[in-house]
Write a structure and sequence with these properties.
The complex is a heterodimer of chains A (470) and B (277). Chain A has 470 residues and is of the alpha/beta class. Chain A has 17 helices and 16 strands. Chain A is 33% helix and 16% strand. In chain A, the strands form four sheets. Chain A has a five-stranded parallel beta sheet, with helices on both faces. A five-stranded parallel beta sheet of chain A has the order 6-14-7-8-9. Chain B has two domains: 2-89, Elongation Factor Tu (Ef-tu), domain 3, CATH 2.40.30; 100-210, Rossmann fold. Chain B has a seven-stranded antiparallel beta sheet with strand order 6-1-2-5-4-3-7. A seven-stranded mixed beta sheet of chain B has the order 11-10-9-8-12-13-16, with helices on both faces. In chain B, strands 14-15 form a two-stranded antiparallel sheet. Classes of the chains: A alpha/beta (470), B alpha/beta (277).
């Protein structure tokens, strides 16, 4: 055994990942970090303690064998490292980039518990392995088992639907993947910006899944083109992964002025429709000079940083609690600050002021934190008489989204909660309809990429068992 | 890819496209719309279903050339393909036997009101059509509508044909002198729908309009299409496109339609230069 010989490096901090200079990147849409070189990846891999009881794996919602893939990187077996990750996670290039690692695998990494030590950069290493494989490796199409003759309809091509389709097709079932937009990928293509997740990476994964025989049908809005009942007549089972894409607004006066966007619209125009390339691409977008974004999650950070890249001089991020409570990934908060986004915490918009139909200023009120609420975070309370106002010419509302209602509206028998999420059983992700399964944001409400993938995986397993009995 | 099987020039700046889209054709109902994207760099634009034929597997769209996308569409011929067509979107018209119904169509709204007239007639209504255009040459579908409606009234802004004036003049005259009217549909430019609603308000006759705000996805995901109805914000693509016209905040709709005026001009001028070569 060469295990005894191995000694982890003593390096306290993660190996830095090179990134675009701040002044340059705030005016382009290219990806911010460049990723590790082979040498950097090996150096970082050496920090891992190769724990006997690796806590990191428990922190990963899909149980990636983290020490194993890190060891493979350390040994220079990059291709094998990628394959190792893919045993559990079919979209590593994506997860390595967008997983909230600080709340998952890296949060519980044993190395990170040592005083003054940072956890192993698991996400960066995952990203490295996946990118290396894409560039040099052998992406081989796995041997699919003999066809089972069973047909499954997967509705929605976000991470939940993609993963479910991927697993089911590998089990020999015949899969049709329905997507209402003209491109597959869900939030990965319409929501998360190019500078954080290059679209060619998503495309690569979609192409791969299609190469396995999944029949992708874009421009197909289920509920309108086919109802669930109609699909039930043609398919042996159905998976619903339609996400939580319905934007919420604040419900304050002036919210319908021109220049007020939902984050979904702003990001969809920019990402999916490539409005940042207007007029080479046809979809226009309002480029603001003084911009306010309300919200504190990834969506708010993405909107603020997109507005900056579209040419804003000043971007304010208005959030009603303090920075500590912000749900965004820490890395995104840090990048946003580096880029000069101004955080206006403990503030909440109360009115959009307009002029000639256009947004002109934002009126906010100051907040203070009271007792913790149901979410465990301290409840923000407005301070009477503390209203203040500032001029803006673009306002983006990023306070959250709700489940897409189209399918539940057209399928009365499908049980949903009062928030519009689809109800599934506790043990299996099965809905109130026989043969219909669901997972991802449509079940949990807006969550994360990796949780949606986990749900897609679990559903694939349940569907397979259901089909075997059928 | 969706093939154009027939293309016609209806009037000076309006085109008709019959497109092979069998799944949509099978599902379509009067009052619904589709969103198309012509090519990879194109924008998504909504167009109402002017007709659909489940047997032939085709849908018919009619587009007024106003900006870049509709002009680009106008360069396509039979045999050409459109990259994306998604639909049917929006709620269908609520067809019932209401009694005596007036359907007002203005400009290209004439094309889209035909399916509604047809469905209302089939449901047993007495259908009175009123159509109007700027001038005689822009008036489309007169014959087709004559075959469907029990009565058809025509106006042109310049008096070159039919009544000299606006559809609202004809409407007012009918409401003043005719029998009771149970319900009215009005489809056309927002400004026309607004004035139809202003006219019918004092007669207390329910007036349904089909709103045309700017859209992106058409599935309830962006909120671009939000309008105010009865003081509440609604998404036209999922709650509409038809609403009670007396409750619509018209000024907001008209203002929101102007949101990209400067960009649209830029895009269109660039397109014109390109065609000129
Ligand atoms: C801007 C933004 C940034 C984010 N950043 C992060 C991040 O950094 N890290 C992270 O982990 N998570 C992030 N998230 C959250 C994460 O993207 C979601 O939790 C995840 O995408 C949910 O996956 P899903 O498959 O359930 O749904 P989605 O990704 O929403 O996909 C659903 C798909 O279904 C389609 N669809 C909907 N209705 C129908 C229908 N009736 N018929 C056919 N198709 C339909 C939709 O068009 C869509 O493509 C972010 C979200 C946003 C919006
Ligand atoms: C539900 C619905 C149904 C419609 N049905 C038809 C139809 O059957 N026939 C038809 O000719 N037109 C219809 N429209 C309007 C049509 O979508 C626009 O004319 C088209 O998008 C203009 O694109 P453009 O690039 O050619 O012009 P642009 O240069 O983009 O715009 C020119 C003018 O059109 C308006 N406009 C721009 N984009 C949109 C948009 N996405 N939606 C609505 N208006 C817009 C603007 O106010 C602008 O003043 C419909 C709109 C909606 C919402
Ligand atoms: S999938 Fe996400 S949580 Fe799991 S190891 Fe990779 S980065 Fe960490
Ligand atoms: S917990 Fe940290 S140090 Fe231990 S195996 Fe996992 S990544 Fe390596
Ligand atoms: S067009 Fe996006 S919500 Fe209606």
């Amino acid at each position: 055994m060469n295990m005894e010989k191995r000694k982890p490096s003593k390096r306290k901090l993660k190996v830095e990942m090179q990134q675009q200079e701040i002044e340059v990147r705030i005016r382009n849409f290219n990806e911010v970090p460049f990723g590790y070189s082979e040498e950097q990846a090996i150096e970082e891999a050496k920090r891992c303690l190769q724990c006997k009881k690796p806590k990191c794996v428990e922190g990963c919602p899909v149980d990636v064998d983290i020490p194993a893939f890190i060891k493979l990187i350390e040994d220079g077996k990059f291709d094998k490292a990628a394959k190792k990750i893919k045993e559990k996670n079919s979209l590593p290039a994506i997860c390595g980039r967008v997983c909230p690692q600080e709340d998952q695998c890296e949060k519980v990494c044993i190395l990170g518990r040592k005083k003054e030590f940072e956890p192993v950069a698991i996400g960066r290493l995952e990203r490295f392995a996946a990118d290396w494989e894409a560039e040099h490796g052998t992406v081989k199409v796995p041997n699919t088992p003999p066809p089972t003759g069973k047909k499954v309809a997967v509705v929605g091509s976000g991470p939940a639907g993609l993963t479910c389709a991927f697993d089911l097709v590998k089990m020999g079932h015949q899969i049709t993947l329905f997507e209402s937009l003209h491109k597959a990928g869900g939030v990965l293509v319409y929501g998360i910006p190019e500078f954080r997740l290059p679209k060619k990476i998503v495309q690569r994964e979609v192409d791969y899944i299609r190469s396995l025989g999944v029949n992708l049908r874009v421009n197909s809005l289920i509920g309108k083109l086919y109802t669930i009942d109609e699909l039930k007549g043609k398919y042996d089972a159905i998976f619903l992964g339609t996400g939580a894409g319905l934007p919420m607004f604040l419900g304050i006066p002036g919210e319908n002025y021109n220049g007020v966007y939902s984050a979904n619209e702003f990001l969809t125009r920019s990402n999916l429709m490539k409005a940042y390339l207007f007029p080479e691409w046809d979809t226009p977008i309002k480029r603001g000079k003084k911009v306010a974004v309300v919200g504190g999650g990834n969506v708010a950070m993405d909107s603020a940083r997109t507005a900056l890249r579209l040419g804003a001089d000043e971007v304010y991020l208005v959030y009603r609690r303090s920075e500590k409570e912000m749900p965004a990934r820490i890395e995104e908060i840090e990048r946003a600050k580096e880029e000069g986004i101004k955080f206006m915490i403990l503030s909440n918009p109360v009115e959009v002021i307009g002029e000639n139909g256009w947004v002109k200023a934002l009126k906010c009120i100051k907040m203070e934190l009271g007792e913790p609420d149901e979410s465990g975070r301290r409840r923000p309370i407005p301070i009477p008489g503390s209203e203040f106002m500032f001029d803006i010419d673009l306002f983006i509302v990023a306070i959250g989204t709700r489940p897409n209602p189209l399918i539940s509206q057209t399928t009365p028998a499908l049980k949903t909660t009062k928030w519009g999420t689809i109800v599934v059983q506790e043990d299996v992700p099965k809905t109130s309809l026989d043969g219909v399964y669901a997972g991802g944001d449509i079940v949990t409400g807006a969550a994360t990429v990796i949780l949606a993938m986990g749900a897609g995986k679990e559903a694939a397993k349940a569907i397979d068992e259901y089909l075997k009995k059928k | 890819m969706y093939e154009i099987v027939r293309r016609e020039v209806l009037a000076e700046d309006s085109d008709l496209f019959e497109i092979y889209a069998p799944e949509i054709a099978k599902k379509a109902k009067a009052g619904q719309f589709v969103i198309i994207r012509i090519n990879e760099t194109g924008e998504r634009i909504p167009l109402t279903l002017a007709d659909f034929d489940a047997k032939k597997g085709t849908i018919t769209l009619v587009a007024l050339r106003v900006g870049k996308t509709t002009h680009l569409l106008g360069t396509l011929k039979a045999g050409d393909e459109i990259l994306d067509v998604v639909g049917p979107l929006g709620n269908p018209t609520e067809i019932d036997n209401y009694g005596r119904v007036i359907c007002v169509g203005g400009g290209l709204g004439i094309a889209t009101i035909i399916t509604i007239c047809k469905a209302l007639k089939d449901a047993g209504n007495y259908v009175i059509g009123i159509i109007g255009a700027r001038t005689k040459d822009l008036l489309i579908y007169e014959d087709k509508l004559r075959g469907i409606c029990n009565e058809l009234h025509i106006s042109t802004d310049d008096g070159s044909y039919g009544h000299h004036g606006f559809v609202t003049d004809v409407l007012k005259k009918l409401l003043d002198e005719g029998d009771t009217i149970d319900i009215i549909w009005a489809i056309g430019p927002a400004i026309m729908m607004k004035f139809v609603c202003k006219t019918t308000e004092s007669y207390k006759i329910k007036t349904i309009v089909s709103l045309n705000p700017i859209m992106v996805d058409g599935t309830g995901m962006c909120g671009a299409c939000r309008v105010e109805v009865d003081g509440k914000t609604k998404f036209t693509c999922v709650h509409g496109p038809e609403f009670d016209g007396h409750k619509v905040n018209w000024d907001l709709l008209l203002s929101r339609q102007q949101m990209y005026l400067n960009s649209e001009k830029l895009s269109f001028n660039k397109f014109k230069e390109k065609i000129r070569g």
